[in-house]
Specification:
Dihydrodipicolinate Reductase, domain 2, binds NADP nicotinamide-adenine-dinucleotide phosphate, 20 strands, 27% strand, ten-stranded mixed beta sheet
Length: 426
């Protein structure tokens, strides 16, 4: 009996697409065959060093229809990125009965629900294991391995660029310098906003929330705070508090409510989230019955991401049925009850501490500690206030009040402090 062969049409021969061709060639899988590759500038792509892994009988094309309408393509592997025109192309593929494998987090976060419905209607696969945390199998791990639990919270580090920047700052680097290094190494874009301002991470958080919390969230409604205001002095104070700083993405379900936020947070050194360095990703799920599960590893890069893509292609070849649990559309709140860290830079004069305490008291926020390092001049004196738990919205009001004080030299910088022994189980 001859083995059934799954024929692959690849859209995009860039970092991940070319690595996928290499990983597929290395697998020597007899039941998976690359038949077509679509990319603009095909002649240029054929000279790519990884084009050597593309079998000679593969048809290269600059016309996407040559893949979408091909009789010799069973699964379209989309490794281009972006919402448009990709969404329309993948709809066409699904409509014509082809399965789809993609690494496209924006597409899955913003348009996933409708695409999953279309794939189910057509009886084909739509897999996206590489869309969150690259080579770390958090998507299949949550979808399959943890589907028996009731996950209450998902938190962690899903943007390798921010982790590279912040963990380098923890080791003494300056924000501007390390951002330049990240750009030089190809980790950060020329415009780093999607990474440092949290937009990339919140798209991934919404994908995880759909799977883990079964909550369908609009990414644009998740508050995202930039890491660009974190400075060396914050790491010095964080250390004094037994913490470090990471860009944390966190969503929690309490009954019908979901709270979610992305931003720099003070992370206790005892938390696994503090242990990830460089471009590593780490996701911690907290289940009602199973407790905490940690996923960690290389969140990006051609090879790790291509492994996740290849695993999805194998799942399609083996017709593996993923567990499909319904997700409900949920409004999200960014109002989190937590302790906060506020760093103030002031012109030192009598009464400043009383004025700051007064601003916090006005909104009912209790001070937990006040820290002040020696060795700074009176013109720009940095010090830190940590608070007892209060709502983010209350914190923001108190911070706005502090910002209006005459002696404030720059806008106050504030972050949530993660509490490690905050169980999700009930
Ligand atoms: N890189 C990672 O570590 C990583 C990790 C996880 C997920 N992902 C996701 O994987 C996907 C691919 O990322 P990547 O890093 O491989 O990107 P990339 O290196 O920029 O590759 C994209 C490829 O698609 C081609 N392309 C883009 N738009 C096109 C268009 N309109 N028509 C024809 N060809 C087009 C590009 O051609 P040109 O060379 O001509 O631009 C390039 O070859 C994205 O969704 C990304 O979010 C990437």
């Amino acid at each position: 009996m001859s083995e059934k062969v799954l024929r692959v049409g690849l859209l995009g021969f860039g970092t991940v697409g070319s690595s996928f061709a290499e990983v597929l060639a290395a697998s020597q899988a007899k039941d998976i065959q690359l038949t077509r590759i679509f990319n603009r500038g095909v002649q240029r792509k054929k000279t790519h060093d990884k084009a050597q892994f593309v079998p000679a009988n593969v048809a290269w094309t600059e016309r996407v229809e040559d893949v979408l309408e091909a009789g010799d393509v069973d699964v379209v592997v989309e490794l281009m990125g972006g919402l448009d025109p990709v969404e329309g192309w993948l709809r066409a593929a699904l409509n014509s009965g082809k399965s789809v494998v993609t690494a496209n987090k924006q597409l899955i976060a913003y348009r996933g629900a409708a695409l999953f419905a279309l794939a189910a209607e057509k009886g084909v696969h739509l897999l996206y294991g590489a869309a969150v945390a690259g080579g770390v199998p958090v998507i299949p791990g949550v979808a399959q391995g943890l589907s028996g639990d009731q996950i209450k919270r998902v938190s962690g580090i899903v943007n390798g660029t921010c982790n590279f920047i912040l963990s380098s700052m923890e080791a003494g680097a300056d924000y501007g310098e390390v951002l330049k290094t990240a750009q030089g190494l190809g980790y950060a874009e020329a415009n780093p906003s999607a990474d440092v301002d949290g937009f990339d991470a919140r798209a991934k958080l919404c994908i995880l929330s759909r799977l883990a919390l079964r909550a369908e969230i609009d990414p644009d409604t998740v508050p995202a705070q930039t890491i660009s205001t974190v400075s060396a002095i914050d790491f010095a104070y964080a250390k004094e508090l037994g913490c470090t700083i990471r860009q944390v993405s966190r969503a929690q379900k309490d009954g019908d409510k979901v709270t979610a936020r992305v931003g720099p947070m003070l992370v206790p050194m005892t938390s696994p989230i503090a242990w990830s360095h460089g471009t590593q990703n780490m996701v911690v799920t907290s289940g009602r019955f199973g407790g905490d599960v940690v996923f960690s590893g290389h969140g990006a890069g051609g090879h790790p991401t291509a492994v996740a893509v290849m695993s999805d292609v194998l799942a399609v070849a083996h017709d593996s049925s993923p567990v499909r649990l319904p997700a409900r559309k949920v409004a999200v709140s960014g109002d989190v009850m937590a302790p906060y860290y506020i760093r103030l830079v002031v012109m030192d004069k009598p009464g400043i501490i009383a004025a700051i305490a007064g601003a916090l008291a006005k909104f009912g926020v209790n001070i937990d500690s006040i820290l002040q390092k020696r060795g700074y001049g009176t013109e720009r004196l940095p010090f830190v206030v940590t608070t007892e738990p209060c709502l983010t919205s209350t914190m923001e009001q108190a911070v706005a009040e502090m910002a209006s004080l005459d002696s404030m030299v720059e806008p106050p910088m504030w972050m949530q402090i993660l509490v490690v022994d905050d169980p999700a189980t009930d």
